[in-house]
Design a protein that fits this description.
Distance between the termini: 40 Å
Radius of gyration: 15 Å
Strand content: 25-35%
Number of strands: 8
Order of helices and strands: EHEHEHEHEEEE
Largest sheet: 6 strands, parallel
Strand order of the largest sheet: 1-6-5-4-2-3
Length: 180
């Protein structure tokens, strides 16, 4: 069973590396109940892709991980168009009958996760999909929840939580003003 994730306010939110350590413990615990030879991590571009790469390495998983760009699957694509930094999806393994752990940086409305699941099913029917997120900031618009969480933020910050990665792989978290 996953440990209860810590709850922080925006003012007390620790650095991203501390949150990553909590997420690593939670994902390790989640994987224990699965046949490890059928577990694949899939990171949602960009923050989730960085996290999936780190988790894959730190968990010493043998099966390859993948990355997913949900730009074309978003339900607001017709309003906002294509993201300026769209990346190709890279899933170089069959997803049918595999246990997938979908990784993202921030869980908010649930719409990105819905888009990711829609795209994943275009690759086949997985045995299961579980969600791992660095931060759950609340504000869900869809009935989606994470199985592994680094931390919760309550109340949600007035801006967007943004994960970045330095050239040497160190994660950093910032709160940026919301676009109008």
């Amino acid at each position: 069973m996953q440990p209860t994730p810590p709850v922080y306010t925006p003012a007390t939110l620790p650095d991203a590396e501390t949150l990553y350590a909590s997420l690593l413990v939670a994902v390790r615990e989640e994987i224990k109940s699965l046949p490890v030879q059928q577990v694949h991590l899939i990171g949602i571009y960009s923050g989730g892709a960085w996290l999936a790469r780190r988790l894959h390495k730190d968990l010493k998983l043998v099966q390859p991980y993948g990355t997913l760009d949900v730009s074309f699957y978003r339900d607001d694509f017709d309003r906002i168009g294509l993201h300026g930094q769209a990346q190709p999806t890279d899933i170089a393994f069959p997803v049918a009958d595999k246990h997938l752990i979908l990784v993202d940086d921030v869980l908010y409305t649930g719409r990105t996760i819905r888009a990711a699941m829609n795209e994943l099913f275009d690759y086949g029917r997985p045995a299961s999909i579980r969600l791992a997120v660095l931060i759950d900031r609340g504000g869900r618009e869809l009935p989606i929840g994470a199985a592994a969480i680094g931390a919760r933020v309550e109340p949600a910050p007035a801006g967007n939580l943004v994960l970045s990665e330095t050239a040497d792989g160190v994660l950093a978290l910032s709160i940026e003003p919301q676009e109008q």
